[in-house]
Amino acid sequence: MNITIKKAESKDWKVIQKLNNDVFESDSKNDDDLDSGWPFSKEGIRYYQSLANGEYGNCVIVWVGEKAVGYAAMSIKDFGYRKSNYVEIENMGVSPEYRSLGIGKKLIEEAKKWAKSQGINKLFVVAYYNNEKAVKFYRREGFEPIGLELQMDI
Q1: 29 vs 108: CA distance, rounded Å
Q2: Predicted pLDDT of residue 52
Q3: Strand order in the sheet with 123-125
């Protein structure tokens, strides 16, 4: 399998949109408040376009031949109340049929490289608590829990 990872280009915004929509569809079982239409909203489209053209953070796409099978969108995150700056992996996804082939690991390596190129030595990611497979993946890649998000309906 010929895998290449390339920085997104302006023309790739619809590729990112499709891959992120796959993530939304998968995550909908973990979050009943997730707006499944967001990837196709004006705000979503602007986000994908700014990722693709490099205005906002960094985005890489994994290609198997001519087929886009994964991506990672990253941005610099300053929490303000923490001593360090972070690169946040805002969203990342691999097409279901290409999971468990090492592609996610390659995307984490790309995030590390980009963070170091920005002078940052910490990565941050959020995963749904009930998404045990994702949590297990991130832990295996070296991420450690630092908090727990909680919500309630009122």
Answers
A1: 24
A2: 95
A3: 3-7, 58-64, 67-77, 86-94, 123-125
Alpha-carbon distance 19 to 16, whole Å?
A: 5
Q: What is the DSSP string of 66-85?
A: TEEEEEEEEEEE--SSSSS-
Query: Tell me, what's the pLDDT at 53?
Result: 94
Question: What are the extents of the domains in the chain?
Answer: 3-140
Predicted TM-score (pTM) of the model is: 0.92
Tokens of 47: 């986000």
- Domain 3-140: give its CATH superfamily: Gcn5-related N-acetyltransferase (GNAT) (3.40.630.30)
Residue 60: enclosing H or E segment and its boundaries?
A: strand 58-64
Residue 145: phi and psi, rounded to 5, are -65, 140
The structure tokens listed for 103 are 């592609």
